[in-house]
Specification:
heterotetramer, A: 341 residues, alpha/beta, Rossmann fold, Hypothetical Protein Tm841, Chain: A,domain 3, six-stranded mixed β-sheet, B: mainly alpha, two-stranded antiparallel sheet, 9 helices, 66% helix, binds adenosine-5'-diphosphate, binds magnesium ion, Dihydroxyacetone_Kinase (chains B, D), Dihydroxyacetone kinase subunit DhaL (chains B, D), kinase (chains B, D)
């Protein structure tokens, strides 16, 4: 690299910027040895009891910098393995193949792929390799971001907040013993019934780049951002939480067109927005949903799919039915989501 | 007539990409996620080492090794794309002992086809294809009109650079930049910029 | 106020800065209606099943801006009630008295008080009021911050990270039916055996103030900060995570002088530091503890006691024994900590 | 000789604290947590309303009400401290019909004693005590030498202001600022600054 980037040039806790991902994964594994294992060679995380014989295995992966996604969701009732790439960079097929082989319990493996060009291509190459080795892989694409319009003229909708919900619900489906096509169908149902919209109040600084991806003056907001620190679709004056909630919920609902009335409301922090504000935003979202005739019978509030230390939030609405609701409630035991265990 | 040394090419690419990494990353920060320079630097460093220590392989095998190494180390969009490109180029060469002008034109044709097959980008979508396609065409034309390899490579390099420059006014329709819609206009595509560097490096990998 | 502060003058999701706390509490209660209730009149949060007859009740409180502390820790196995003040401002005695009355199940009430002048005085007035009403209140002071030196010449050590551990462990003690003096003794044991040290990589902006409390250039670190956005004891150049971990762990251990070898290691984010960095820091802390002959048999990594969106972290080490370990492991069902349920 | 109207005093305090809130908060940001101005503004606004709508109470009762209201609305360190101060002042007055010079001196003595009892700060600890104690002493001295209440209040106001100013070079030993150790030196204590405002407001609450 041409420029010298070091820990001291950013407000970050790190050693060498090149080692951030590996060192963080080592910490995650040290803290959660009961739940998951880190294979530093293959650069993958697997649940401690993998492979679980006869169970459909779920793996996901993507660039790092979105923690707890995906590593924090490895464990009983959710992912069997995660493949973390460099910050904001899709992992490579070797990782995905190693993960696929490590967790295959004979009932097939599902690749949960967020719809980004890099992720899609790398997972595609990995799936081809896995097929060569006789492992049945089924890919499920997540593309819930309604901020991406005219998807004919783009790489298509991005996979954002729905990823978390899908990994939890499909994980529960696999855990209760559903077969490959059932788990895949449930995962796809979650994706079809979920929509998201995100906003940024600040940029973020990838460690290797050493400076913010974009400049955003105080008092302005990027609307329709993804999770890679990329600018949004447009920029506007920063309104109140009430106004921002409307700017997020409206496109979500008008695209989702929920048929039923029960929903899961997910208010997600981008990494640098504290809980105080997330719950304040949840309050606004909850009111808007009820005003639209929807009842948020389940919710999730917190920073679960992030862009490093970016300030901002996203809203995901998932239309529920009895089965999705009970799969959401099923026990889960991962570093970042845990209940019933 | 001269031919290309794959080892020298990868050496040159590795050096120029590392030198321009910050610039590429800044281009990517403007319309993407700010990792393109870092991604390719990591990848071509690994390629350089792999190719240099691979012993006495024919150029086609060296390119396949380079492509596999890129796929295994880069990630992102550029890893599979350039990885596939080099693998396809290598396969097109087969066990040919030398990478001369005609073979290079065939190899780059195959590379472009691989990129298009995987990424489905068309010309004008503001991607590396907008630099690679004119480069391949210029090389083919120069070789066919009997130009020297050096001249052909210069023509290819110029075409790639112009192609990259031409992405500035385009609106992205593929990759991460496409999410920005009209806001992607006015910026050079990072993948096209790096492609121009990679093609230009061929000229410095020419042995008599 | 002399200056006009509005949502748009900060990178914050809010409506009127004056309403931040109330609106956020309403959101917390809406999201976690299963676990807790918000009494907007009395400005307190109580667990839904309060008062639990015959159980010692635990209440805590303090300024807001430290979320999830304390509201996120209300629920079975932890706090019976929380009294949130304005941002960084101790709550008032009326709140504490209302909470005390609302959760008193006849077995006495413990006030968990972080050692800040304001908190101590307000809780003192409340305890006097409660005594007037015939409720047996026992106060437990938390003062684990080793960054405060010469405590004879200061307001004494601050209560920081140990608060979270104490609320969990004393909550489990109360839940299993221990009497008032036992729960209080266990709570005090946690405080005696825990030490903390915090650092800031950025300041934070209280909503009502509208600008950062202090200026901290990139590349510098405030060492020995508390949780109110106040500057630390000294400022230094920002080193690597490895160096920073040593600057935190060393004073903690040299003050704690652990007799045993088992510890709980708590790496806490200040609000604006993402998980990627917290786990990287945990990795360093884990190594340092092991090098010092200690085994972190339990750990907690995440943003649990924060300073709004401040970037930074704190390290708390709690010396464990069998009883503290099993109380830590006991089921807990709160918005921010949940397991076994 | 004149006397103090508690309603007018609280009106004046409420107005001046609100006007100076930002300044007080900035002082607190430098060595504390940046909420002092907001805290007192909230409190004295509530006090003003409570006292104004409390009907025809003797001044002692009004001060007790003011103190309780502060305790119930401010929080932080300053709430219990100023709340206790005003409650004690009120209790010292009892049901006296008027707040004249001698009674005011007694009341403020009691207020100071309450603050010291609760907060245990000594002079020189860089707290509100460093403004309040000289003010009380100056008022007492002026009253004892037979000065007019107006003169006595002026002396008290000056002493409070000087006391506040004198906190600048002190190192804090109480409250939040004490955590800063030597870094607390060089800043005026916010509580001392607000105390000077509150004392000075007495002069504007004097009725003939
Ligand atoms: N579908 C595609 N076809 C061809 N090239 C593409 C496609 N998508 C992206 N690219 C190229 O990849 C470049 C970005 O590479 P890089 O930054 O390394 O990956 P990522 O976008 O995953 O971060 C773009 O500038 C573009 O030239
Ligand atoms: N022990 C004490 N005795 C007297 N005054 C104190 C004491 N501790 C703090 N103070 C005063 O309180 C002021 C701070 O008040 P405020 O900012 O409202 O509360 P907090 O420190 O809880 O945020 C200090 O500037 C100081 O004058
Ligand atoms: Mg990328
Ligand atoms: Mg990129
Ligand atoms: Mg305060
Ligand atoms: Mg203060």
């Amino acid at each position: 690299m041409a420029t010298e980037v070091s820990a001291a040039s950013m407000r970050k806790l790190l050693n060498d910027p090149a080692d951030v991902v590996k060192e963080s994964l080592a910490g995650l594994a040290a803290a959660h040895a009961r739940v998951l294992r880190y294979d530093a060679e293959a650069q993958i995380l697997t649940r401690t009891d993998a492979p679980v014989s006869g169970k459909v295995a779920l793996i996901s992966g993507g660039g790092s910098g979105h923690e707890p996604l995906h590593g924090g969701f490895v464990g009983k009732g959710m992912l069997d393995a995660a493949c973390p790439g460099e910050v904001f960079t899709s992992p490579v097929p070797d990782q995905m193949l190693a993960a696929t082989k490590a967790v295959d319990g004979g009932a097939g493996v599902i690749h949960i792929v967020k719809n980004y060009t890099g992720d899609v291509m790398n997972f595609k190459l990995a799936a081809e390799d896995a097929a060569d080795e006789g492992i049945h892989v089924e890919s499920v694409l997540v593309d819930d971001d309604v901020a991406v319009q005219d998807s004919l003229y783009t790489a298509g909708r991005r996979g954002v907040g729905a990823t978390v919900l899908l990994e939890k619900i499909a994980g529960a489906s696999a855990e209760r013993g559903d077969d490959l096509s059932t788990v895949a169908a449930i995962a796809r149902r979650v994706n079809e019934r979920a929509r998201s919209f995100g906003i940024a109040l600040s940029s973020c600084t990838p460690p290797a780049a050493g400076r913010p991806i974009f400049d955003l003056p105080v008092g302005e907001v990027e609307l329709g951002i993804g999770i890679h620190g990329e600018p949004g679709r447009r920029r506007g004056p920063l309104g109140t939480a009430r106004e921002l909630a409307r700017e997020m919920v409206e496109p979500v609902l008008s695209d989702l067109k929920p048929g039923g009335s029960r929903v899961l409301a997910f208010v997600n922090g981008m990494g640098g927005t504290p809980e105080l504000e997330l719950y304040l935003l949840y309050h606004e979202v909850d009111k808007l949903l009820r005003a639209a005739g929807l009842e948020p019978t389940r919710n999730l509030v917190g920073s679960y799919i992030t862009s490093l230390e970016m300030a901002g939030a996203s809203v995901t609405v998932l239309e529920l039915d009895d089965e999705l609701e009970s799969l959401w409630d099923a026990p889960v035991d991962t570093p970042a989501l845990r209940w019933g265990v | 007539m001269g031919s290309i040394s794959v080892i020298a090419w990868m050496d040159e690419v590795s050096a120029v990409i590392a030198a321009e990494a910050d610039h590429l990353t800044q281009l990517d920060a403007a319309i993407g996620d700010g990792d393109h320079g870092v991604n390719l630097t990591r990848g071509f460093l690994a390629v350089r080492e792999a190719v240099a220590s691979s012993g006495d392989l024919p150029p086609g095998r060296q390119l396949i090794l380079a492509g596999k190494t890129l796929v295994s180390t880069v990630g992102g969009a550029s890893g599979p794309l350039w990885g596939t490109a080099l693998r396809r180029a290598g396969r097109a060469l087969g066990d040919a002992p030398e990478l001369d002008g005609a073979r290079l034109a065939d190899a780059l044709d195959a590379a472009l086809a691989g990129v298009v097959e995987l990424g489905a980008a068309e010309s004008g979508d503001k991607t590396m294809v907008d630099a690679l396609r004119p480069a391949v065409a210029a090389l083919r034309a120069a070789v066919e009109r009997g130009a020297s390899l050096a001249e052909a490579l210069e023509a290819a390099g110029n075409a790639a650079a112009e192609g990259a420059q031409a992405t500035v006014p385009m609106q992205a329709r593929k990759g991460r930049a496409s999410y920005l819609g009209e806001r992607s206009i006015g910026h050079e595509d990072p993948g096209a910029a790096s492609t121009a560097l990679i093609v230009a490096a061929l000229g410095r990998a020419l042995s008599a």
